[in-house]
Structure formats: structure tokens, C-alpha cells
């Protein structure tokens, strides 16, 4: 079991930590960027556009409070895992937070386009796919793997042992309006999103504990779970400690739930004949809403009381280890520990993950460059992330954007960048990352810091506009 836990995290973190959600934060202050409209609906591009399906805006990211450096230890020219005897318990414990976890995100635009109906009115339409997954394994559980069962009885908390996954489609319509005729320099915008959930799964061991003695393991359960999809059902195990089975019914392929969300934004550019004319202040709140699920498509799982079993099976980790088999075993052991039984299902609502952005930007050299400070708050599945991002933005001409930014405030500090070619007519191309790691272990080139990185790119046809220069 020790090797299985390690392999799961090594495979997940190392395979995706070089790559990451609707738009790059680094585009927020790039005035000619097409993608900045996703961060504040008051923003509008300089041209009508039509996105290349799937390729117009695709990104993947990983956001975690642990990384490869939490489990790999270079010593004396060798690289050891945390399970190796050359790594002390204290060394390993100091690398972990109380509730280690990783959130993974992928989204892409299936179709998008936007156009001006007048010089002051811009409309946009988007159809896309969003998938999120999260895994949390508590520090106590990792310490159990490192220390073993010991000479006497031990009790470990399973709080923070959870898994979540969601997949949904969204269709959105947005509008940006220039209100300079009312208040000079003011623009406002909004977007309405219709959400269709394909599936939502959440399993949490809650306040459960694991008691270890020399001959058995006892789980004191206070766990809950929800599976929202008409396609899949869990059949509880007949014996404690065994893996439950699953049933699927392809004839019931249908949406698991429906919902909606709103984006709201405003931008004000100072123009009162003073030295700081051109200073721009902006604010937006995104993804305010939720998805609603009916009880007929929901399976509610509960686990309470105590269950004893002989422990988890082991699997060796060699050069030819089957990572897929290891990850499958982790899932099986998690469900066996939970010992879920079916409870009474009910309608429920799952909130979206709101985001707030507040920015201040000062341009220089006739708007060819600027500096900006952006505050962002992202309410994710496992935690709320607060960031300050300092940006330097270069627009030497209207068709070229370059942004470099430095994010801080949280425990991590990271460099971001974005490059975008955005002609008024032609193909817009952008690529960038808000979180790029550079700190790697010498010789092994393994990221030392937390698994916190993303990558996004896009290709879009720019169609020009008679309403904009």
C-alpha cells in the first residue's frame, strides 16, 4: 500500500505539473487581447471574431499544496522516495501540510464568436466543456505509510480523505456596453451561462478515524458520498473492507443536472485632465450560480459506526510497474475504507466556483506599455485562493501583446507570461501560463515546489469591424 500511494502522486504530479481555467490571468491588462474578456465581461476586443472549434481556447491546470518535492529527497547523489529508510520521519513530516491535496482542471471552447452591433455595444456567445477533479489524502495517512504500524496501537485521523469529480457543458451569452455618454470612461458588462452537468461525484471520509492494532484495522466511519448521474450506481460491498461494485445503464445516458451562473463586470478609465489620466480601475465577479440535481438521478452514500478488516493489499513498485493498475488499487482501497452504504437520496444544489477580480492599471508611452496590480480570489473545491499579481504589459503595436507577471500573497510565488498575436483581421494566436515552475532538483529536473501550474493556448479568426478602428 505504501508504494501505491507514492506512485499515484508521483504519476499524477509529474505528468501534469508542466501544464493547467477559462482564461489566463496575465491577459487581464492586455488591452488588445481577445481572452481578457473572459476575466471581466465589461472588456471587449477590437474586432469581431469566430473561434476555431476546440482550438480557440483550451487549457489544463493543476493546483495543489503538495508536489514532487514533498515525496522525493535527493541525498548523496541519489534520489530517494519518502518511504526510503534514508529519509527520516521528521524530514518527511516537515514537507507536508495538514491536508495535502491536488485539484485538476481542464476546459475547452467547442464554439465561440463575438461581434459589435454598434461602436459601444459588443455581444459574445460561447459553448464549452469544463471538467474538474480533486483528491485529498490527510497528513496522518501519509505518516501511517511512513511509520508503519509500530509496536503498539495507533489512531490516525482520516479527515481530509476525499475525492471529487465534475463534468459539465455550458452555453453563455455576454454583453459589454460603453456608458461614456452617461459617465465618461465607464464600461459595464454581464454574461449569463446555462449549465448542463454530465456527472458529479463526491466522496468524503469526514471525521472518520483508523485504529491499528497488530492483527486488524478498524475504521470508525462518519463518511458521506454523492453520485449524481443516471448512468452509474454503486452497489455496496457485502463484507466490510471489500471493494463495492458498480453498475451502468447506457440506456440512461442523460444530463445529471441543470443550472446557471452569472458574470458581472465594470471598468472605469480616468479622464479628468490630471497627471494620472488613463488610470483604469476594474472589478468583476464570475461564475455566480449553481447546478441543481433531482433525487431520481442521485445516489446518496453514508457510512457510520465501525468496521474491521485485515488491512490493505500491497503491490510492488519496480521499473515495470503498471501505473494504471496502481491508481485503480488506490481507488479500490479508498472505497473499501469508506465502507459506504446506500442512503436516502434527495434533491441538492452544487455551487459553482466563484471568482473575483479587482485591478488597477497605469499606462505609459501612449498606451504602448503599462503596469497593473490585480487582486483575485478563487473559491475552489478544497480552499479559497487569494492572489496579488503584478503585471508588466507591452503593446508596441495593436496586433502584438506581451505580458509578464509575478503572483504572490499565497505561500507560493510564481512567474507568469503570455504572448498574443492579435491582428484586426486574420488569425489570433495566444499561448501562456500564469504559473510556471523554474525551481527543479539538480540532475533530476523534478519540480521542487508545490504542484501549481497551468498552460493555455488558442487560435481564433479575427473578422474586423466597421465599428472599431
Explained architecture:
The structure is a single chain. By secondary structure, the chain is mainly β. It has a single domain, classed as Porin, CATH 2.40.160. The chain is built from four helices and 25 strands.
- CATH architecture level-2 label: Beta Barrel
Q: For this entry, what is the oligomeric state of its chains? A: single chain
Structural class: mainly beta
Spell the H/E element sequence: HEEEEHEEHEEEEEEEEEEHEEEEEEEEE
Q: Level of helix content? A: under 10%
Largest sheet: 21 strands, antiparallel
Number of domain modules? 1
Weakly predicted, low-confidence segments? 1-21, 312-323
CATH topology: Porin
The backbone outline, from C-alpha atoms, is globular
| Rg of Cα set | 25 Å
Distance between the terminal alpha carbons, to the nearest Å? 63 Å
Strand percentage: over 45%
* Name of the CATH class: Mainly Beta
Q: Total helix count?
A: 4
Mean pLDDT: 81
DSSP strand tally: 25
Write a compact overview of the structure shown.
This protein has 469 residues and is mainly beta.
Essential attributes:
469 residues, 21-stranded antiparallel β-sheet, mainly beta, single chain, 10% helix, two-stranded antiparallel ribbon, Porin
Blueprint (SSEs and pairs):
Elements: H1 2-16, E1 48-51, E2 58-64, E3 72-75, E4 78-81, H2 89-94, E5 101-118, E6 121-136, H3 139-147, E7 154-157, E8 162-178, E9 186-204, E10 209-212, E11 217-228, E12 232-235, E13 245-248, E14 257-269, E15 280-293, E16 298-309, H4 323-338, E17 341-342, E18 348-351, E19 355-364, E20 369-379, E21 384-397, E22 400-408, E23 414-421, E24 425-436, E25 452-464
Antiparallel strand pairs: 1-5, 1-25, 2-5, 2-25, 3-4, 5-6, 6-8, 7-10, 8-9, 9-11, 9-14, 10-11, 11-16, 12-13, 14-15, 15-18, 15-19, 16-17, 19-20, 20-21, 21-22, 22-23, 23-24, 24-25
Helix pairs in contact: 1-4
